[in-house]
Amino acid sequence: MKQKLVVLSGAGMSQESGLKTFRDMGGIWDNYHVEEVASPEAWKKNPELVLRFYNERRKALWEARPNAGHIALASLEDRYDVEIITQNVDDLHEQAGSRKILHLHGELRKARSTADPSRIYTLHTPELNIGDVCELGSQLRPHIVWFGEPVPNIVKAQKIMEKADILVVIGTSLVVYPAAGLIHFAPEGIPIYVIDPGSPNLTLSGVVYIQKKASEGVNDLLEKLEHYRLGFNQKE
Ligand code: APR
After folding, report:
1. What is the whole-number distance in angstroms between the Cα of residue 235 and the centre of ligand 1?
2. Is the whole-model pTM more than 0.85?
3. pLDDT digits 0-9 by tens, 173-186
4. Pocket lining: 176 vs ligand 1, CB cutoff 6 Å
5. Which atom of ligand 1 is nearest to the CA of 15?
6. Beta bridge partners of 44
7. Which of 30, 58, 121, 170 could join 195 in a cystine, given CB atoms 3.0 to 4.6 angstroms apart?
8. Atom of ligand 1 lying closest to residue 213 CA
9. Which domains does the chain show, CATH number per domain?
């Protein structure tokens, strides 16, 4: 039976794929006010600006490819039962071949009906514009969880976290809730690895910090996990 390795990833995971993070120097929130582009109020006030904001990010995603960190995580699936909980709206974990991925904040390549939120569509061009409507004739919106909106997958994510044998936190500043609170659902005493060149807001003890970027850090993680696994088996 494979050990369950749960990953909580954030924007730093995709930084080396050319996608901006939010709160680093030159990050997305340096150039846009959240309330103007990523909230239901923004959508009501200026839908064109909101659509432009996501079209810009979607165009960047269209050019982006998974980095060595995404690929190394996917390779862990032959030894671990890997479940990725991501705050990212890109599909780079999917492109790298990871199979169990739960998006907390939505998916940039998807749009949904404003009349019936269960009608979700995959976009085949990077642009979503005013006048793009669903079968009911209602304007399509980005399939993104905006600030102030509920996070539909949070309970599912908590249940995954509760079953973790190993937790890996990669590329998130852990400042946005409820996502950041997920780490407190991990079982007491399991090994926790944090991969981040910066220092995320983590108040847990007994954490193994790999202060590197994702592409190098995940490869270091593979080594540490191998030692842990061998050590684990020796104890068995
Ligand atoms: N590799 C690993 N980590 C990195 C890298 C990298 N190459 N580059 C930056 N980081 C780290 C930063 O040090 C920081 O801790 O990634 C983290 C990025 O933090 P944020 O920009 O706050 O991104 P994130 O934590 O994912 O934001 C959470 O906020 O705006 C909302 O919905 C949005 O999902 C997002 C949420």
Report:
1. 36
2. yes
3. 999 999 999 999 99
4. yes
5. 7
6. none
7. 170
8. 1
9. 1-19+66-105+151-236 (3.40.50.1220), 20-63+108-144 (3.30.1600.10)
